[in-house]
Amino acid sequence: VGQVMDGTWESTNTWGGLDTGMVHMAPYTNMPDDVKAEAEKVEEAIASGELHPFAGPISDRDGEVRIPEGETATDEQLLGMDWFVEGVQGDLPK
């Protein structure tokens, strides 16, 4: 009997990334070979935990530091992110 059927199933959050196979990068096409090789290195570094893509310093588009030098965005910060990083134009959806 399944967990739903017997009433023992519990909802949980799942937060997997490149390392779990839950997230995949689009194929690296339409770019020079050297750029593709660099992108693959960065992807491998993120998957291994060597590189965190949200390590500070990270500023918003108004220049306010949101993630200071030496800190890494928490899951809560990423889930609640309601600002654009420096250089991004446009409006947040409402």
Name a few traits of the molecule.
94 residues; mainly alpha; two-stranded antiparallel ribbon; 3 helices; 5% strand
Quick structural summary:
With 94 residues, the protein is mainly α. It contains 3 helices and 2 strands.
How would you describe this protein?
The protein contains 3 helices and 2 strands. Strands 1-2 form a two-stranded antiparallel ribbon. The relative contact order is 0.11. The mean pLDDT is 93.
Element order: H for helix, E for strand: HHEEH
State the shape.
Answer: extended
Radius of gyration: 18 Å
Strand content: 5-15%
Which strands sit side by side, in order, in the main sheet? 1-2
Helical stretch tally:
3
Per DSSP E runs of 2 or more residues, the count of β-strands stands at: 2
Query: Structural class from helices and strands?
Result: mainly alpha
Q: What are the low-pLDDT stretches, counting only 5+ consecutive residues below 50?
A: none
The overall average pLDDT, rounded, is 93
Major β-sheet annotation? 2 strands, antiparallel
Q: What is the share of helical residues?
A: 25-40%
Separation, N- and C-terminal Cα atoms? 43 Å
